[in-house]
Write a sequence for this structure.
């Protein structure tokens, strides 16, 4: 089996159409393992009509627990807790940040730090291949660790299934989950839009790609919303030596197909529309560069 390549689809901001794009790429290449690393708001499984196969708990946080029968109620933990998580000598697990101050200062050692389930890592079947996705619990931290777990699981499955490609739906922004998604990836496809915020955040996420040495390509989604801004993005990419591999037009067919639970490129009513042809042409360009 050849080297497993990973294409990470990212965007500097939310709402650019990144997940819709990933869904179409998955449908165009059913020989790939899929990963959804937007663990704070994973939704690729909805578009791909995924069927859950397995789920394992994700543990990455610890919270303080007071053994009430041994507590002297001296009040030291209450006074030193910066997060006001201890009331009536009981710990509120939603307020506890796991800083361990109370654990270390308790004179009777009646406070312990216990692991909690912070989310789930799941494997599902889709019509286009196996999907690995994560779900972080409400208010939980360590999303970067869950992203790493999802990517590791996807790579293990790709190797076990003899697949040569992983297509990853990355999180928006430039924070820790994005860094965890990009580290070690073969290539990044940045989906942007012709708005001022889209241009600004494209520049930021491109800087992250460069920092980690990940080659980036750009897709301008809904390019005909503002042709002037599209021209600005193209000029900026030329200056930076970044290829624009696709320009996708506005088409409500994308939304209608999504509501029907299908990527637009395979929906029987829309697979021959111009927007579908544009996505297919872009995928051909991306494939050529992935294999180069």
């Amino acid at each position: 089996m050849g080297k497993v390549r990973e294409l990470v689809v990212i965007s500097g901001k939310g709402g650019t159409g990144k997940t819709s794009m990933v869904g179409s790429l998955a449908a165009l290449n059913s020989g790939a393992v899929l990963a959804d690393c937007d663990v704070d708001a994973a939704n690729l499984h909805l578009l791909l009509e995924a069927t859950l196969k397995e789920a394992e708990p994700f543990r990455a946080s610890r919270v303080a627990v007071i053994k009430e029968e041994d507590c002297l109620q001296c009040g030291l933990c209450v006074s030193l807790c910066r997060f006001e998580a201890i009331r009536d000598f009981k710990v509120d697990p939603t307020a506890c940040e796991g800083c361990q101050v109370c654990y270390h200062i308790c004179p009777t050692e009646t406070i312990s730090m216990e692991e909690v389930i912070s989310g789930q890592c799941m494997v599902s079947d889709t019509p286009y291949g196996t999907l690995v996705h994560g779900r972080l619990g409400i208010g939980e931290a360590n999303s970067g660790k869950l992203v790493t777990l999802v990517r590791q699981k996807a790579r293990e499955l790709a190797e076990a299934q003899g697949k040569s490609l992983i297509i990853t739906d990355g999180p928006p922004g430039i924070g820790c989950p994005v860094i965890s998604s990009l580290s070690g990836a073969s290539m990044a496809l940045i989906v942007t839009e012709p708005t001022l915020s889209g241009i600004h955040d494209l520049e930021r996420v491109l800087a992250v790609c460069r920092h980690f040495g990940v080659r980036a390509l750009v897709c301008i989604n809904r390019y005909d919303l503002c042709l002037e801004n599209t021209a600005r993005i193209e000029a900026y990419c030329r200056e930076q030596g970044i290829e624009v591999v696709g320009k996708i037009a506005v088409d409500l067919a994308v939304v209608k197909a999504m509501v029907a639970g299908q990527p637009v490129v395979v929906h029987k009513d829309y697979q021959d529309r111009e927007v579908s042809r544009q996505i297919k042409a872009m995928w051909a360009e991306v494939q050529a560069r992935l294999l180069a």
Remarks:
- The radius of gyration is 22 Å.
- Residues 143-161 form the longest helix (19 residues).
- Residues 56 and 121 are 5 Å apart (CA to CA).
